[in-house]
């Protein structure tokens, strides 16, 4: 077998049985490549989780088609052991064939608990190494070290001095590589055997991406001092004059060749913040100039050029994993925020840079649309930890509560906030509050990217196909949110929901959150959505208005209230938005169930086809995860169903800005730690030093 997937895919031959029941305790069939392979063979996959939801999907989507004589190949997936298949409903057991897959069968010589902790996307490298090196029977520690070497490309015995460790951690954390805790613990144990790292905060910076970059950030000004000729004598004489939050060495080898190669991208993507320095003039002419704040306009243009160069060469391919697009979206958001958030850049950049951006935007739109057409259908069934789609978020939060039985969670849904506008919002929040840390991730919204579809998915914790009766309204959100948490074992009194937030006083929401027993809060902040629907100045105007709103006390006061009362705060959005030009307004009258600016929705395929005939470049989106009678027609790229020549800021389509949205955990830093203050240009304010 050339791949571990072959062990599984060989069992799926079309036409053998219309129903296949699979016991899959390790979630192997939920791996992205397996799902694609199974669907490529004509099979549909339904996880058996909630019996009521399953029965609805099964009866409406498959049983009814079988009764009409249609042939389909269906896989019912049970995340449990082989013996538990008999717990499935009797009517399924009567007609379904049974299969069982486990990691133990695929990796028989490696420690099962260790392999089970791996992300399924990392198993390709592990299987290849197993086949190539035939390691024999390995115990826990030997399996961990085998995985370190052959999956994560970390050879502990070669890490002998600080530059070696920095290179390894930079590669890992820049890529956003997720390493299981059990493997990180072994890695730290091995590093602790080397006296060179005895004072390093390994337990903090090895597993934690944000801590690692914060550790680098607060060492950067000390390095600039050394590079400028000031040395570290003063620092060593006075202890730690910079108020460092992390223990460890003061002097890091940023100038080592293998370390330097990462620094440009770290500063371009704002994983590290450039700092002012009294020797900025001299430093700006060196390789370290990317991390020194000098002339704001010049800094912005250099960053603009660097981001466009990097992004142009890193557009994910058609067979890319979803993580590749989630990662790309973050760099794209930084570029978009820079282009649209700074009028000075647009004025000084001239037509060349703007033309280059538009050309790159067209390439990204085409690549992302093609990728969605082939891969989007499999995203909904992926495991919810880490979340991939919006409806995964509540289940991800539920896992947190399981691990923290006394914990409290607040989910803030900023209606309509795009990822690039989150960049602008984050900078404004950091200006007001230097003691906030943002653990940033991204997730996919549902398509079409409209509020009634996407926001309900957040609060229901289920795909839209399972709330067909309310798919045109948001009125059931409070009930869906409460029901999700009651199903997790909480009571109605533990759960609160509030909407219409963003302006005025906080008193009502403070009273709501102060009720005894409240452990979960769902809060809809719709200020950005209101800004969007009244916006006449395009995306640049959106960024300006979001920045102005974030500079007001409302959001920071809300965050302070939640954090002070022990809530773990998560922020997300239901969909983003783009600036679009009119392609004409369909005259379909009342035949469309929804007449949005970026999408029309029909209950009948023939009606949709009639409108599509007048707009042939529009996209007939299949009802992926949607009710069968919910048929979207999406406007062409960067266009809207409004009068030709008109420009609007809107949503509903499938651009990267509309579909990939932020998911951010917001924390309060320990006393004495601060973030680097940033100004509206995304560069540190004068005198700013400390944690990112």
UniProtKB/TrEMBL annotation:
It comes from the Bacteria. SUPFAM superfamilies: Alkaline phosphatase-like. It comes from Desulfofundulus thermobenzoicus. Pfam families: PglZ (PF08665). NCBIfam families: BREX_PglZ_3. This is BREX-3 system phosphatase PglZ. InterPro entries: Alkaline_phosphatase_core_sf (IPR017850).
